[in-house]
Amino acid sequence: MTTATRTREPVLEIRDLCVDYGVGEHGVRAITDATLTLHRGEVLGLAGESGSGKSTLAYAVTRLLRAPGVITGGEAVFHTRDGEAVDLFGADAATLRRIRWDQLSVVFQSALHALNPVARIDVQLTDALKAHRAHMTADQRRERAAELLRLVGINEDRLRSYPHELSGGMRQRVMIAMALALEPQVVIMDEPTTALDVVTQREILEELLQLKDRLGFAVIFITHDLSLLLELADTIAIMYAGRLVELADAGELFHAPRHPYSYGLLNSFPALHGERVRMEGIPGSPPALSAMPSGCAFHPRCPFAIERCRRETPELAVPAADLSSRVAACHLQDGLETVPAPLARALGSTL
Amino acid sequence: ACSSDSKSPGGGSSSGSSASGTALVVESNPVASFTEDFNPISTNSIGRLENTSSLIYEPLFQINSLDASQAPIPWLADKAEWSNGNKTVTITLHSGIKWSDGQDFTADDVKFTFDLIKSDPAANAFGAPTVSSTSVTNPTTVVLNFDTPQKANFVAIAQQLILPQHIWKSITKPEAAVVKAAQAIGTGPYLVDKFSSQLVTYKANPSYWQGEPKVKSVNLPAYADNNAASAALAKGDIDLTGNNIANVQTVFVGKDPQHNHLWTDKAPYYPQVNTVSLLLNNKSKNAPELGQAAVRKAISAALNRQSYASQCETDYELPATSSGGLTAPVDGKVMNSALNNDLKPTADQAAVDSLMKGAGYTKVSGKWSKNGKTVKFKVTDPQPYTDYACGAQAIAKDLTTAGFDVTADLAADPNAWSTALANGNYDASIHWGQGSTPFQKLQFTADPRLTAPLGQPAANNLNRYDNPKATDLFKAYEASTDDASAQAALNKIQQLLSDDMPSVPLLYGAAWYQYTDANFTGFPNADNPYMNPAPNSQAWEYIILKLAPKS
Amino acid sequence: MTATDTATGVVHGPKRPGTPALEARRLTKHFPVHEGLRRGRVVHAVEDVSLALPEGTVTAVVGESGSGKSTLARLLTQLITPTSGELLLDGKPVGSSAKERREWTSQVHLVLQDPFSSLNGVHSVRYHLERPLKLHRKAAGKAELDALARELLERVALTPADRYIDKFPHELSGGQRQRVAIARGLAVQPRVLLADEPVSMLDVSIRLGVLNLLDELREQERLAILYVTHDIASARYLADTVVVMYAGQIIESGPAVQITDSPAHPYTQLLLSAAPDPSRTEQVELRGRGAPPSLIDPPQGCRFNPRCPFAMDVCRTRQPPALPVDGGEHVAACWLLSPDHASASVG
Amino acid sequence: MRALRSPKVLTGLVLLFVFALLAFVGPLVAPHSSDWTVDRIHHVPLAPNGTYWLGTDQQQHDVFSMVLNGGRDTLLIAFIAGLVATVLSVVVGVTAGYLGGLVDDLLTALANIFLALPGLIILMVIMKPLPPEDTANPFVIGAVIALTGWAWGARVLRTQTLALRGQDYVESAKVIGERKWRIMLFEIVPNLLPILASSFIFTVIYGIGIFTVLTYLGLVHTTVPSWGLIISQAISQGAVMVGQWWWFVPPAVCIALVGTALALVNFGIDEVINPRLTSARVGRGKGVTFRLGMTPVLRTAPRAVPATTPTPYAPTEEVAK
Amino acid sequence: MRTLLRRLGFYVLAAYAAITLNFFLIRLLPGSALSNILTQLRGSSLSPATVKALEEEYGGGHSSTFSQYFTYVGHLFKGDFGTSTSKGGPVVDVLTSDLPWTIGLVGSATIIAFVAGTLAGIVIGWKRNGFLDALLPIATFFQSVPYLVLAILMMLTFGYYGGFFPYGGNYDTSRNAHLTEGWNGPFIGSVLQHGTLPALTVALASIAGWIIGMRNMMITTMDEDYVLVAAAKGLPQWRVAAVAARNAILPALSNFALSISLVVTGSIVTEIVFSYQGVGTDINNAVLAGDYPLMQGVLLVIVFTVLAINFLADIAYVLLDPRARKEA
Ligand SMILES: Nc1ncnc2c1ncn2[C@@H]1O[C@H](COP(=O)(O)OP(=O)(O)OP(=O)(O)O)[C@@H](O)[C@H]1O
Ligand SMILES: Nc1ncnc2c1ncn2[C@@H]1O[C@H](COP(=O)(O)OP(=O)(O)OP(=O)(O)O)[C@@H](O)[C@H]1O
Ligand SMILES: [Mg+2]
Ligand SMILES: [Mg+2]
């Protein structure tokens, strides 16, 4: 799961990020105080239910969030290849343009929508080269585009195709090739394989991981398929209702979740092996941004909720029982309350 | 390429041949654009639309319809003599006239022309009586024979434009033939200089038989509609025209009071040349009551003619004063003196009451009725003819006040309206008078021989007046060989119309006429009424030949 | 490639005594394609499928995208007419007259994938439930309709019914919407409920709720349920029998646990190895990469043969019949299972 | 109904309301009837004065009264045109889109032919043979105008129906055995309402314009003065050339205002159909500029986190496997 | 290619329908050229015989409608539209002299409006709620004010009272102008001067539609992921805008074709108001004069032009949109 070449060097640090949709009285808060760090060469998984703010977080960090999204607080520091630390929220348009794609690229959820339907593949592959690698000649760019296609396992004779002439899997591969064109430091992937079927999905993910090992970029991988993340990611962040509720190493999370929501999520995926047992998932449904429950947003669905959960919003903290630096936002873990058994598993135990 | 001198006198850079001097600009009918057709007998050629046919093709005589007693002015013909009980006319032609291609003009051409309109009635757009036979006595004398007395229709014979036989004999369907500028060969004072769809220019014919005209060139621009023409007129771009222009004093005269003129400078500004009447359909299916003379006369008595003249016609026209149907301002000399001023400018309810009661009607809740039926009909006129539309509404009001059941029916489409009128598909309608002689004017409202059954088109007597006495009187006029008996017959017809009132005289219709003497002098006006200026082909030829450039 | 090659006798689906509620015999659907000036070409979307759905069972249909799962479901509802084949309800063949088709709609119901679009945003929950009641149960009178509608809501665990009955779809969460869709299906009192990926658009946390509801319906209403999905784990969770489709054909079927624990067909094996599984420890190897075949011009023989790591000559020429895997219900259409050919197997 | 918040839409609705009111009560509150005249002799229009607020026309009609009276027919006809055209476009568009196949081909061809025909000319030709009773009847005129104005709507509705036809709720309705017409009428049409409204408004605007032109060209027979008729008479009686503005400016302004009001309302409907247009408005006047790829940063968030921020997560070597 | 062929098939069908409709619609009309001619012949006392003869000629023939129809279609194929009853001469001559004016006026105005409006729409859409949004209400005004009112307002303000431009006729035909039709400076100058106001009217009335439509499309397109991708790639702003514009223009193109018949309607009105001498005035005069051959001719020419433009727009669409090309 994890590879040996893990460095501690942070490449993207997000602190206290707040994002609103709308300005003034019509605004609603979509992300509250999100703090996390992405290290070089690391795969950071971002999981959570639909609407929990995964995409919002990713786009806000890159300043690609569309209107009416507004960043209302926090900072995002990007460490460039050359060791320069850029605050993305303070950067001007030129700086952002310089960093984008060259150092930080994005793979969107649906490649069908993310590829310009009226431009040929080669044009879309080379336009970033043209913008960022002014010294390259047209031939070099072409050669690079062909190379990129080969990299993701597509025959280069597809260069002159239009997106609609490719299958879904091929399109997503093209998208990935595009994201890697400038060998960026960080690739943000927003549900890059949800629209594909499992075989294709796995093929693409395998290729992606190989490329990551070869090129050494870090990935923020967004999905709601937690079981996929558990196989894929080094670190996993779980989001609920606009907040990070748990952040842990993938293995730790799988074996010993500390937040009731993480626990519930893990219990929502039927297993491929073993005894067939009835599972219950999580009762109820996620809250709407405009009607957030008081206190801990999860408390109405939480089987372990206590009175305090209704009043106080828990903060991300290292669970009292753990020595590691994993964090969870749950009152039950502050060392004062008795922790229910499912949330108190020791590391290394099995589910 | 060489257009720098285009503003220099002498015209366009490309045309060296264009006549020198300022061009006279005339305008008659708005058209979007011209098509190159100078056919004088077609109903829709440039000449017909713009009244310029006789700049090229000429008539035998010129007629000044402003004065019914004035003798025809000799033109291609020197004189015409009637014989054989008004059934034969011997015409003596002026000698020495040549066609513009150099060929001699002879009696054969006149014979050819009258034979042609006999064999092809559709070519007879001037309404000349159909000959029974023609003969040429010598190169300057031609004899036309008719089946019936036709002296009364001499105007139509006189105004027939004469065609060159040597060109037209090979044309199979003459009224539909397209005559291009190059083939427009006539005896007239002008030749086509240049044709474009927006502007036709004529140049003086240097070998014209009366001598080269003083006006060297005549321009005929196309104006898409009345507004465009009025605007051009106000700017002084047009010398001679006849448009119905609202606020003509402000819009036209006021722009250059020194040069811009109308017939007179006092209301009604224009010569009053025909009788506008309220045509009443004597055979109306909706309102059979209109077949009764008493009802028609009661209607006449109920009208406020002055109101229509002032408000609807903005004082351009005068209220009619004679019940005999003739136009007092121009026909005074031949009018039945007993009928002078017998029409009142305002309504006379007492007269209405006595006429209606006399006819057996009683007033039931304010409406004249007989056998439980009111006199109910519509006054139909086209919306776009705003003055008539106004009149129709006013008449409806007046008649309603007087106890009739009348509404105004403003037809949207003039074309449909005139079709309805031609076919007798209406009850009542305001319509201008037609005809250029007193006799023709009376024929237009009352000659039973010229009407047609309901449902078939008629060109005259649209009110379908049918009275054998009238037929006899019209015949008597045609047969009269001396002026006195002719006048006596005319008086009788007027008296009959006054008694029967087949249609109700309303107003004296104006001949629209505007001119500017900034560039040319010699225009007719009230002080010098040598010709009726109404846009009419022959009249304009006559006027243009009288003009001279201002030095 | 002819149909006679295949095992004519095998009817997939759970085996239960008695007549199955719904049975499909040799269903085939070819969609005509309009491409270029070449006419008469068809998409072989569903080929020769025989399936029996006994009451009180859940049959899962799994397979990759485009394998014909939805087409099969729609064929069973008679939304589309089969090119050939036969449908039997309680053992009786159905006609194709308009009346019989309407009759069919009261027996077989389909729940669609996307609860956001399967309910019409302009109608209330009440309308959605009362329409089928009016149409099929001839329920009359406001009171009766209202009572029946409430009862339906309660059956899908939307309680109290008052809270939901007059809401509009946009006021409900995805899981609630899907429950309403199912309730509408129950309104006609069907024998058979077809569910085309009923949970794939739902949030993971609420998926199980809907699956559990289907499970209860099987138990309580004795419905015959067809559960279409591409998530083999959920098929295993819910279904009695799993049917695997590939390129329009059923290539394997059998008891759910057996299929996932010991898949026989190379494609099923591929599918399982690709499915995410956090408890997997060793690196998986995908055997059979590549794209599914064109359905306009399907390959000769076994349709999986171009991708199959074990393909033999016979696989390229003759279509494998459904062969028993271990004597039970488990069958797979693979020559590897044929004693005549197994010897040639490489793997 | 978020659209209601837009000042444009609000202005439009208020204007429309005023004019609708005018159409209804105008004829009742007008000081005089349309054919009332100050006198029967004068022919010089009176300039606006204390008695005749908008002066008089040549025949001494009170222009103010005519304008008040003239709204009803204009609006009624345009409204009927909009209504009939919308109904036609629904019938053709939805049927074509939903049934597809040959029906679709035929109906689409029909709509396209009507699109290619220049409406005004067709109307000129159609209006001509109508008997006067009909060309004076707002319902007939409205219906005839609609005949040339339905095709745009039909095309838009067809495209939209094609999209809706594939929606699952249509499929679901089929599954429970709904009949075709019921699916079209109760499942598809309600979802087309915003588009219907927009196409209705579009046709009403078209109707006003074309009716004005038809009156101007004298093809409409009417005794009640519509605004177009007042303009037409003013122009043909030379009011423009002598600057009698009070005669033709008020009706022209009324027409322009009604048209603008409708278009403003359509703005709101557009935003309902396409909510993305609304988001384009957000933040206006609040000092925030939204630019693609430059998400604004407004540091207004209250610091929910106290000074003691938990240590950011950083896995250690020991923990990682 | 196939789509285009199918479209072509439709156009042939539409053209044929127009031809047929044209024939029968006009047979339904009351009145005839006859009454118009009789009206013109005032001043002469026509004998019943002449009236009869004229009726034969202009009152609509008496042969069977069917045989008339075939003669009509046969003549059409030979380019013979008959003879105008109000203007004399073949309808073809009228058309050849007047159509170029209309095409020149409407064509240039429409193209200018389309290009300028589209560009403005792109900019306004791109800037979203920039100060340019203030243009929208103004644009709305011009879009919704009927052509007639707009034309009159333009004529009054810039023509009659303002005196900036002439407002009647196609070029200066006054006696001192001495212009010769052709490609010479003064003539073209005069044509441009006279064309300005009507062209401005046509352009103003339609430009608003393009601006608003393009702005809306632009805003919609900018929400597409591929535009965001272009921004995410760090491409220069104008390149990002170009990606959006390139996609947004496709619907604008089909709208362009759709709106042509509206533009035609509007330009007829404009020609009438500005006394411009083109086929718009022709058809109005033809209707008033009951000149059916001319009416038919103009109608056909206009319908064919609209169809041709639609076909061109179809071709352009197919060329610009690879997805459409695939089906083709
Ligand atoms: N344009 C917007 N205006 C208002 N609210 C929005 C907007 N876009 C997103 N939101 C809200 O912001 C919240 C977070 O949305 P986001 O798209 O980030 O969720 P997500 O976790 O990516 O969900 P998914 O798994 O469905 O992609 C959601 O509740 C959503 O409703
Ligand atoms: N109406 C249709 N016309 C033509 N081809 C069709 C039609 N419907 C489906 N197909 C084709 O039939 C095949 C099977 O499609 P189907 O929708 O049944 O697959 P599926 O297994 O449900 O896929 P998914 O998992 O993506 O829903 C596909 O190749 C599809 O393109
Ligand atoms: Mg997302
Ligand atoms: Mg499917």
Automatic annotation (TrEMBL), chain A:
Belongs to the ABC transporter superfamily. It comes from the Bacteria. PANTHER family: DIPEPTIDE TRANSPORT ATP-BINDING PROTEIN DPPD, OLIGOPEPTIDE TRANSPORT ATP-BINDING PROTEIN APPD. It is found in: Cell membrane. Residues 12-266 form the ABC transporter domain. PROSITE patterns: ABC_TRANSPORTER_1, ABC_TRANSPORTER_2. It is a peripheral membrane protein. InterPro entries: AAA+_ATPase, ABC_Ni/Peptide_Import, ABC_transporter-like_ATP-bd, ABC_transporter-like_CS, Oligopep_ABC_C, P-loop_NTPase. Its main location: membrane. The keyword DNA damage does not apply. One of its GO terms (molecular function) is ATP binding. This is ABC transporter ATP-binding protein. Pfam families: ABC_tran, oligo_HPY. Keywords: ATP-binding, Cell membrane, Membrane, Nucleotide-binding, Transport.
From TrEMBL, chain C:
The lineage of its organism: Bacteria, Bacillati, Actinomycetota, Actinomycetes, Kitasatosporales. InterPro entries: AAA+_ATPase, ABC_transp_ATP-bind, ABC_transporter-like_ATP-bd, ABC_transporter-like_CS, Oligopep_ABC_C, P-loop_NTPase. Gene3D superfamilies: P-loop containing nucleotide triphosphate hydrolases. One of its GO terms (molecular function) is ATP binding. This is ABC transporter ATP-binding protein. Residues 22-272 form the ABC transporter domain. NCBIfam families: oligo_HPY. Residues 1-21 are annotated as: Disordered. It holds the Pfam family oligo_HPY. The keyword Chaperone does not apply. SUPFAM superfamilies: P-loop containing nucleoside triphosphate hydrolases. Keywords: ATP-binding, Nucleotide-binding, Transport.
From TrEMBL, chain D:
Keywords: Cell membrane, Membrane, Transmembrane, Transmembrane helix, Transport. It is found in: Cell membrane. Gene3D superfamilies: MetI-like (1.10.3720.10). InterPro entries: BP-dependent_transpt_permease (IPR050366), MetI-like (IPR000515), MetI-like_sf (IPR035906). The chain crosses the membrane at residues 12-30, 75-99, 106-127, 139-157, 192-219, 245-269. It is a multi-pass membrane protein. PROSITE patterns: ABC_TM1. It comes from the Bacteria. Pfam families: BPD_transp_1. Residues 75-266 form the ABC transmembrane type-1 domain. The keyword Transmembrane helix applies. Belongs to the binding-protein-dependent transport system permease family. PANTHER family: D,D-DIPEPTIDE TRANSPORT SYSTEM PERMEASE PROTEIN DDPC-RELATED, OLIGOPEPTIDE TRANSPORT SYSTEM PERMEASE PROTEIN APPC. This is ABC transporter permease.
From TrEMBL, chain E:
Belongs to the binding-protein-dependent transport system permease family. Keywords: Cell membrane, Membrane, Transmembrane, Transmembrane helix, Transport. The chain crosses the membrane at residues 9-29, 101-126, 147-167, 187-212, 256-277, 297-320. Residues 99-313 form the ABC transmembrane type-1 domain. It comes from Streptacidiphilus monticola. This is ABC transporter permease. Its main location: membrane. Gene3D superfamilies: MetI-like. It is a multi-pass membrane protein. It is found in: Cell membrane. The lineage of its organism: Bacteria, Bacillati, Actinomycetota, Actinomycetes, Kitasatosporales.
